[in-house]
Write a structure and sequence with these properties.
alpha+beta; seven-stranded antiparallel β-sheet; elongated
């Protein structure tokens, strides 16, 4: 993706944080004739491979499987918010959109035997269930579980390239950034709160605390 230097996230751990905080991804693959995309949760293993590994599963009937032999792109979209130019100190400007995102590229390895599918589904469920949840995949009736697992294809994706971007009005003056955060703080939605908090951190870091 297009990443101006002032918006780039260079730290691998910071990109991992974006992925883990926004793990409902868009998985995009291509062939010589078309692109295919699926919306799905993807779980990051930070310690498997130099740049980490993602795991997930899709429906066995999903024809995107025919594109899995090529490089894949997983997009993780974080907080985002419209920024009105009416918030600035002058009307001689244009509005924009602030946002956070991470892109992970890699090759997909299909995991289609029972044990691999069971492990991947179990890890996903364990990660997303609440700590006090009593639900366990292992407690499901075996025949019921077999039927469920036959309907999916699990996979891992070893990450070969990572990109992170935080577009937070860094190309504007600190004074204008402060004006934007003041307006964002008037909103009640989580996107506004997250963008405002990240912008304030940038301002603090830029001014040495």
């Amino acid at each position: 993706m297009y990443i101006p230097k002032h918006t780039a996230v260079a730290d691998k751990s910071e990109i991992f944080d974006i992925i883990e905080s926004n793990s409902f991804a868009i998985l995009i693959t291509n062939s010589q004739t078309n692109l295919k995309a699926t919306h799905l949760p993807m779980l990051l293993d930070r310690n498997e491979g130099e740049l980490g590994t993602l795991i997930g599963h899709i429906a066995a009937a999903n024809d995107q499987l025919t594109n899995f032999e090529n490089e894949a792109l997983a997009i993780f979209s974080g907080a985002h918010k419209y920024i009105s130019s009416s918030w600035y100190e002058t009307d001689q400007s244009v509005p924009t959109w602030n946002y956070v995102t991470a892109h992970a590229y890699g090759l997909i390895d299909i995991k289609d035997d029972f044990e691999d599918k069971f492990e991947i589904v179990s890890r996903l469920v364990e990660y997303y269930e609440a700590e006090d949840s009593r639900y366990k995949v292992s407690s499901l009736d075996k025949n019921f579980l077999n039927g469920l697992l036959k309907g999916i294809t699990a996979f891992s994706m070893k990450i070969t390239r990572l990109e992170g971007k935080k577009k937070l009005s860094q190309n504007h003056s600190v004074e204008r950034q402060r004006l934007v955060t003041e307006k964002l703080d008037n909103f009640c939605d989580d996107n506004a709160k997250e963008i405002s908090a990240m912008m304030k951190k940038n301002i603090t870091d830029k001014n040495g605390g």
